[in-house]
Design brief:
single chain; 112 residues; alpha+beta; Immunoglobulin-like; 1 helix; elongated
């Protein structure tokens, strides 16, 4: 009996780890760049959860998704897309900009 438990225990532990919230798949959010503006300008994400933001750049020129609050920088070439992984975030507001067009490309991630 002890040998059977010793054989099954690693599989049981692996199953528990695979099903735990910490290893759950991150939620995906979409952010579009068009006319050097982000849409939507606000993205609401669940707090304390890892999320993925897919950035779709519909403009012909590149843009950089930049946020010191989120500790992320990502250049997205024109007519292409890129992803950033953030979190888990504490509840709050996390501003971001398009560094190449700061005057128009602004937004915020709101974790709640």
């Amino acid at each position: 009996m002890r040998r059977m438990i010793a054989l099954i225990a690693p599989f049981a532990i692996a199953a528990l780890v695979a099903l735990s919230p910490a290893t759950a798949q991150a939620q995906d959010f979409k952010l579009t760049i068009k006319d050097h503006k982000f849409s939507p300008e606000e993205i609401k994400v669940p707090a304390n959860t890892r999320v993925i933001i897919t950035i779709v750049n519909e403009d012909a020129s590149a843009e950089e998704f930049d946020s010191s609050a989120l500790k992320v920088e990502k250049v997205v070439a024109g007519k292409s897309s890129g992803t950033v992984r953030i979190g888990p975030l504490k509840p709050g507001r996390y501003p971001f900009i398009g560094e190449f067009h700061e005057a128009t490309a602004k937004g915020v991630v709101i974790a709640e």
